């Protein structure tokens, strides 16, 4: 039997993207090693399968979300599309028949009916939600995939409905509110889950019982970065395995002795490990999206010079990956950030976050404590006593917005 440390209800956490070699990689783990390949051609052949895994693979987690959390019943009876949109769920317009898409555009679909939600799930259109719907439109089972937290849509049809954007953090998603819909959740835990808010999730709460959610991060633009997650606990396969087993409640194995026995999960059936190489290939294929063109190219150039010069940004955000995570981690004191999240991790330290498409996913830092890029610049200007002028700060923000 799989060991569950607690009867936990938790949704998909951030899965970063990294390569397989790392000086900080955990090598003392009960998880069987995942055979990966550095052959570009082989990886490219795995991308289509990896895309399907990212979007639709549940790793058998229906057993938990249906049999324990009873979310299929909740959705069937109480989650209309309007409720779903209110907690940040998205609909893939490309999965909808033309007639249904036209009806939605024409306002002829009942968005207040849970039956409509079940139909959308049956069509595979609700991003990150996978269901088994019978001929009578009954949702017999439901599970979740990586895409729930790490995809959104471009709103081309309506708010919450459009083409998929894989790898984008769904900062509209309110995982805690979704979890709290389950009748299996005790009242005290519902209070915790409802406190998180959109775009935040705690992938350790169900194990260590400490409430400290972090931002759902991007899962694009990380090829060549060796460590995944804010605290650099391991490479992408480490974190994908962690999430699939401990958070999605898929059938697989995870153990990290650095974290203690509470983080040992075992299953007689392993549906996770065989799929990790293809999933990695797809995640590594997700390039960062284009950002808006700068309005003041001259300011950008001045900001670029500051980044590698007086502002000292590149001492940690080292080019070309804009991170030094391949060689070192940092203490919370060095970063001037809250140490709480790091102390719950295996490393007790923070990874320098790679800078990619910053303008598209505010707020910033692991806890979202910097609302804007100006707040980020002001934080480090004060921490390191840089003495930047207002003009220099503005120029630096202009440059960061182009990355």
Secondary structure layout:
Blueprint: H1 40-56, H2 62-67, H3 71-78, H4 81-86, E1 91-92, H5 98-105, H6 114-122, E2 129-133, E3 139-144, H7 147-150, E4 151-153, E5 161-162, E6 164-166, H8 175-179, H9 187-194, E7 200-201, H10 205-208, E8 214-215, H11 236-247, H12 276-284, H13 297-308, H14 332-335, H15 340-343, H16 373-383, H17 390-400
Parallel strand pairs: 1-5
Antiparallel strand pairs: 2-3, 4-6, 7-8
Describe the structure.
This protein has 403 residues and is mainly α. The chain has 2 domains: 40-284, no CATH class; 297-400, Cytochrome c-like domain (Cytochrome Bc1 Complex, Chain D, domain 2). It is 34% helix and 6% strand. The chain is built from 17 helices and 8 strands. A two-stranded parallel ribbon has the order 1-5. A two-stranded antiparallel sheet has the order 2-3. It has a two-stranded antiparallel sheet with strand order 4-6. Helix 1 (40-56) crosses helix 12 (276-284) and helix 16 (373-383) packs across helix 17. It is globular, with a radius of gyration of 21 Å. The N and C termini lie far apart (47 Å). Residues 1-36 have low confidence and may be disordered.
């Amino acid at each position: 039997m799989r060991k569950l440390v607690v009867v936990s209800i938790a949704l998909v956490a951030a899965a970063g993207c990294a390569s397989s070699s790392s000086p900080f990689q955990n090598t003392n783990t009960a998880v069987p090693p995942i055979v990966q390949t550095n052959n570009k051609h082989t990886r490219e052949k795995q991308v289509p399968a990896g895309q399907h895994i990212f979007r639709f693979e549940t790793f058998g987690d229906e057993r938990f979300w249906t049999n324990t959390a009873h979310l299929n019943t909740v959705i069937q009876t109480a989650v209309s599309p309007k409720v779903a949109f209110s907690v940040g769920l998205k609909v893939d317009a490309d999965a909808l028949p033309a007639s249904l898409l036209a009806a939605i555009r024409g306002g002829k679909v009942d968005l207040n009916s849970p039956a409509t939600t079940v139909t959308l799930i049956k069509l595979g259109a609700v991003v990150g939600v996978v269901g088994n719907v019978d001929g009578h439109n009954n949702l017999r089972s439901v599970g979740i995939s990586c895409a729930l937290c790490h995809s959104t849509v471009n709103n081309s049809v309506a708010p919450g409905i459009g083409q998929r954007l894989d790898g984008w953090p769904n900062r509209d998603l309110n995982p805690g509110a979704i979890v709290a819909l389950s009748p299996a959740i005790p009242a005290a835990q519902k209070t915790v889950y409802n406190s998180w808010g959109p775009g935040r999730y705690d992938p350790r709460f169900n194990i260590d019982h400490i409430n400290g959610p972090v931002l759902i991060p991007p899962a694009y633009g990380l090829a060549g970065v060796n460590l995944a997650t804010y605290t650099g606990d391991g490479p992408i396969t480490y974190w994908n395995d962690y999430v699939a087993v401990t958070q999605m409640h898929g059938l697989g194995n995870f153990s990290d002795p650095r974290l203690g026995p509470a983080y040992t999960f075992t299953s007689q059936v392993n549906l996770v490990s065989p799929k990790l190489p293809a999933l990695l290939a797809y995640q590594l294929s997700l390039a960062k999206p284009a950002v808006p063109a700068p309005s003041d190219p001259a300011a950008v150039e001045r900001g670029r010079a500051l980044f590698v010069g007086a502002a000292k940004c590149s001492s940690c955000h080292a080019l070309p990956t804009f991170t030094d995570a391949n060689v070192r981690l940092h203490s919370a004191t060095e970063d001037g950030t809250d140490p709480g999240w790091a102390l719950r991790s295996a490393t007790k330290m923070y990874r320098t976050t790679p800078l990619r498409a910053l303008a598209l996913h505010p707020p910033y830092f692991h806890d979202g404590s910097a609302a804007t890029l100006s707040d980020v610049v002001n934080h480090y200007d004060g921490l390191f006593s840089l003495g930047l002028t207002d003009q220099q700060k503005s120029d630096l923000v202009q440059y960061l917005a182009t990355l």
